[in-house]
Design brief:
CATH topology of the largest domain: Hypothetical protein af1432
CATH class of the largest domain: Mainly Alpha
Oligomer: single chain
Number of domains: 2
Helix content: 40-55%
Distance between the termini: 44 Å
Shape: elongated
Largest sheet: 6 strands, antiparallel
CATH superfamily of the largest domain: Hypothetical protein af1432
Order of helices and strands: HHEEEHEHHEEHHHHHHHHHH
Length: 377
């Protein structure tokens, strides 16, 4: 399928459609047809690199969702013990069982949850996630109920792990090409890592206001570094030129967006991910991160309302990092000048003003990202 026909379809689909959250809600409805007291089913991701457990997707009967919560597994001994023993856990009275409460436990009790059934999810021998079943009635998770839920745990785990394998397989495949682009494009350095974290930071800070899911933010962080994947198809004479590009060279450079779209569309087709939230976020980042709200961007000259949020976020992260760091054609700007330029671009309607303000107001978190992923040499 031609990329020009794919983009409008992707942009027109809301982020709430066809994602893991919706699939989980369907499974939750089946569980409640047998055991109506199961009021919540939730999946929390585990990141072994940081030891972080992160809220990801959930289905709740009262639509009160715990979002954007992270905690190290090491700081939750009760869950660490489940991992070590590869066992599940039934709790009949949450408030009475956990005297030392995590924010997660406090949130559960505040929402009126009384009982829980918790299972670790493994990929091979490695922990991948946790599954939580919660009820607002006490002492309802009996061995019979647990045995029934284990069947659905297998289903949810396979669904989650399949999605995880496909998404990470797609990222791994593309990162091979990104590695090639990194070798050829001398300006990258730690640029890709900083961009990913700036994008995630903006997504997290705007999430409550804009109703962004943890799943969306996870994909935003995961795919932001792939924004310029199409550069692998740009000749070195243009890509590595020191100094300003002439008109013809600039037209060649702009072609990297279309090349990137073709790469993403082809891989998505091969992995049967068309229409999936992950593929939409990835495609939209690649296709629209050079669009500008006043219509002066490329390749389609979209206006702000037509640029998907992920494209607007990555555009701000990209511009901010480019200004802050050395490039073949420029020296790094001082922070005050960078902020002035971003605010000017927002005032002109070129960059999303909300994204710009969100990033610039998060000074401490922003500087921590700069320090952690500083360019060497």
């Amino acid at each position: 399928m031609d990329a020009n026909h794919v983009l409008p379809a992707l942009l027109s689909q809301p982020h709430a459609a066809n994602d893991l959250t919706q699939r989980l809600k369907g499974i939750h409805a089946l569980i409640r047809s047998r055991y109506a007291f199961v009021d919540r089913v939730a999946v929390a991701l585990y990141d072994p690199a940081t030891d972080l457990l992160k809220t990801f997707v959930s289905s709740n009967t009262d639509n009160a969702v715990l979002r954007h919560y992270e905690v190290t597994l090491a700081s939750v001994p009760s869950l660490s013990a489940l991992v070590a023993a590869r066992q599940s856990r039934m709790v009949g009275n949450i408030a009475g069982t956990f005297q030392s409460r995590t924010p997660h436990t406090s949130w559960l009790t505040q929402q009126g949850y009384c009982a829980s059934y918790t299972s670790p999810v493994f990929q091979g021998n490695a922990l991948a996630a946790f599954l939580f079943y919660d009820s607002k009635q006490p002492d309802v998770f009996t061995p019979e109920v647990a045995n029934f839920l284990d069947t659905f745990s297998d289903l949810i785990s396979q669904l989650f792990l399949l999605q995880r394998r496909v998404v990470h397989g797609m990222v791994g495949t593309i990162q091979i090409a990104v590695g090639l682009a990194r070798i050829r494009d001398l300006e990258t350095g730690q640029h890709l890592e900083r961009m990913a974290h700036y994008s995630r930071l903006m997504g997290q800070l705007m999430a409550d206001r804009l109703g962004l899911s943890d799943e969306f933010i996870e994909y935003l962080h995961l795919f932001a570094p792939l924004h310029d994947i199409g550069k692998i198809g740009i000749p070195d004479t243009v890509l590595l030129k020191r100094g300003k590009l002439n008109h013809e060279e600039w037209l060649v450079m702009q072609q990297h967006v279309a090349l990137g779209e073709q790469i993403i569309e082809r891989i998505g087709h091969e992995m049967s991910l068309q229409g999936d939230l992950a593929s939409r976020v990835m495609y939209n980042i690649v296709a629209t991160h050079h669009e500008r709200g006043d219509g002066s961007g490329y390749p389609r000259g979209l206006k702000m309302a037509d640029i998907p949020l992920e494209g607007r976020i990555v555009a701000v992260a990209d511009v901010y990092d480019a200004l802050c760091n050395r490039r073949p054609y420029k020296e790094p700007w001082v922070e005050d000048a960078v902020q002035k330029e971003l605010r000017s671009e927002a005032d002109k309607g070129r960059l999303d003003a909300d994204c710009v303000a969100t990033l610039l107001e998060a000074r401490e978190a922003r500087l921590l990202i700069q320090q952690k992923f500083t360019d060497q040499g």
